[in-house]
Design goal:
alpha/beta, Rossmann fold, eight-stranded mixed beta sheet, 17 helices, globular
């Protein structure tokens, strides 16, 4: 059993802390947000993540997991301090490291015994060296036996607990092999491949991985746009591509593009890093442009169908950036709603989990209690997030509720022939029918 401190209780920190506790370690999760910590002590989750509440509850009950706002309490017996705070995008797309710096300084001010600092936050290449420098300078000559290890996270929102417990790989980078080995020992019970490398290479693996996945999505969306013009079906095209073992089927789902807390931020950050070091980023620029244009194309399609969007009533199903999360950061739905309202449209919307978060940002949008309330009297209905509960809606009832039976399926969730057989003017993405 090891003693761990995890600083930050967002998606990454809370999942990391709870899952390490579930492996038998003693874990203290620390956050400066008093309200969040208070709720966690009452087993009230600050985020929606399937399976997480149960893992937290059982490990708190087993006294392996605790929560605090006191950095001294969190670090008191810690052998490892995991930094899992946010690194939001700055004005130029750069990663904002103010929270990482604050944690590094707090560790330097507090710790009085040997410790391994583990960067779990997504940070620019070179941050591991920078954290070590921050700690050393902050100590002002007071010696401290510490090492920094980069351990980038690859947790997908909506399946984060499963991704932690059954990972494809664990990446560890450090200038001190003994420190890397100690962190690797924490992951040994998972019996997964562990790649040990230097600090900068580990940090780069995270950005390169996310940028590649974002590229695949933007690529299939560009193919989808071509399919629309040429009368081909991108679903069949993607299936045919995916059967090639060199390509595979993952991340070839045409739709409204990628969003969330990782892909947008990480692609921008990699683009910024490369540009600031003299490298051209034409591919990354195109990836971002295509993604942004997918949302605009959806609005253009609705304008084409309705003639004008002014004073039209549009329904939107799904507000989170993907299913099984309440995260609305850079969600396609929110951008589409904004564009619709700019053109004078009135919007109604519903999401199974993200309603509370949306109340704070969608001031003009009517938030509904279910999909059928969304459909009432609308001129068109847009599917923006492919939640399971939207798969088997009563479409005869939906059609009867709508003012005009126009549907834009932004995630290609529904069967086109069936929808048209019911009398819908149905359009998917990249299926030869969206102009």
């Amino acid at each position: 059993m090891s003693q761990l401190c995890v600083i930050g209780t967002g998606y990454v920190g809370l999942v990391t802390g709870a899952c390490f506790a579930d492996l038998g370690n003693q874990v203290v999760c620390m956050d400066v947000d008093q309200d969040r910590i208070s709720k966690l002590k009452q087993n009230i989750m600050p985020i929606y993540e399937p399976g997480l509440e149960q893992v937290v509850e059982q490990n708190v009950h087993a006294k392996r997991l605790s929560f605090t706002t006191d950095i001294q309490e969190a670090l008191k017996d810690a052998e490892f301090a995991f930094i899992a705070v946010g690194t939001p995008s700055g004005d130029e797309g750069e990663a904002d490291l103010q929270y990482v710096r604050a944690v590094a300084e707090a560790i330097a001010d507090t710790i009085d015994h040997p410790i391994i600092i583990v960067n779990k936050s997504t940070v620019p290449v070179g941050t591991g060296d920078w954290v070590a420098e921050v700690v050393t300078k902050r100590r002002a000559g007071k010696a401290l036996d510490f090492h920094v290890v980069s351990n980038p996270e690859f947790l997908r929102e909506g399946s984060a607990v499963n991704d932690f417990t059954i990972p494809d790989r664990v990446i560890l980078g450090s200038l001190e092999p003994k420190a890397t080995s100690k962190v690797a020992a924490l992951y040994q019970p998972l019996r997964c491949p562990i790649l040990e490398t230097d600090l900068r290479t580990a940090e780069m693996i995270k950005y390169a991985s996310n940028a590649f996945l974002a590229t695949r999505i933007s690529y299939i969306n560009e193919i989808a746009n071509i399919c629309e013009e040429l009368g081909a079906d991108v679903l069949v095209v993607a299936k045919g591509m995916g059967l090639d073992k060199r390509i595979g089927p993952a991340f070839l789902d045409a739709g409204l593009g990628w969003g969330g807390s990782c892909f947008p931020k990480d692609v921008k950050a990699l683009d910024h890093m490369a540009t600031m070091h003299g490298s051209q980023t034409k591919l990354l620029q195109a990836v971002m442009d295509i993604n942004r244009n997918q949302r605009r194309r959806a609005v253009m399609s609705l304008r084409h169908q309705l003639g004008s969007l002014n004073d039209r009533l549009i329904g939107v199903l799904g507000l989170s950036f993907k299913p099984n999360t309440d995260d609305i950061r850079d969600a396609a739905a929110l951008e589409i709603i904004h564009l619709l309202e700019v053109e004078g449209a009135r919007v109604k919307a519903y999401d199974p989990q993200a309603m509370e978060a949306c109340r704070k940002v969608l001031k003009k949008t009517t938030l509904c209690t279910d999909p059928y309330q969304v459909a009432e009297a609308v001129d068109a209905l847009v599917l923006a997030t492919e939640w399971n509960e939207f798969k088997q809606l009563d479409f005869k009832r939906i059609k009867g509720l709508m003012k005009q039976p126009i549907i834009l399926d932004g995630r290609n969730l529904w069967d086109a022939e069936y929808m048209r057989s019911l009398g819908f003017n149905y359009a998917g993405i990249g299926r030869g029918n969206l102009k």
